Amino acid sequence: MLPAIVAAGGIPQEGEPLYPLSQGRAKALLQIAGKPMIQWVLEALENAAQISHVVVVGTPLPEEVLTSKVQAILPNQGEMLSNILEGMKKVLELDATAHHVVLVSSDIPAITGEMVDWLVQTTMQTDEDVFYTVIERQVMEAKYPHSRRSYTHLKDIEVCGGDMNVVRATLAAGNQEMWKKIIAARKNVFKQAALIGIDTLLLLLIRQITLEQAVRTVAARMKITGRAIVCPYPEMGMDIDKPHQFAIVEADLLQRLGRKRAA
Asked: pTM of the entire structure?
């Protein structure tokens, strides 16, 4: 069993895509299919046999949203790195023997306990510092054909990133500089080049590098071990950043409940 950290720090600002839906409220508390978005995530973690306890970082939560596994709710630290570090610190305070932790975004409400259990069982087959989930394009588009995700084109596979990953519990506290680089590089091609190397980036751009080669190269440069987890569940990569994605996921959740989305 592993502990989980749920990242719930985002507040859409005026002019951002989700602001008309959130109206300045925390994204995690956005109502979708009759529940706050984060409640769906917390219930999935509650139903997962492989999750021991949960730490939420980023926003206060109403009592009715909480599940029995939630052992701590921490305030927003102001940036993603600080939230991760604070969550890791609390995890180790609650259980000093924790070796890995599941990092979960609060904006993937379509996940289920079964999916969470699959991820923990799959990752714990080897002992790596970081396990990064990816979803193949055909898997994502079979379930969510109009999601308009961004994909990375590799030599052997075309994937998008997942929003539930597993990391070594002590990694964040011991490698703050690494985390800063990874977070800073997420949406900046020049920072990505500095992180993984111009040679690797060029191979990536011309689709001449495989998924395994890409992971091995990045891990070596960051002085960690890592493994990409090709996930069969598109729900893990269906985060909600735009209104059309909200509509797609809400329709999916309502279908699961046997209801239809209002026009």
From this structure: 0.90
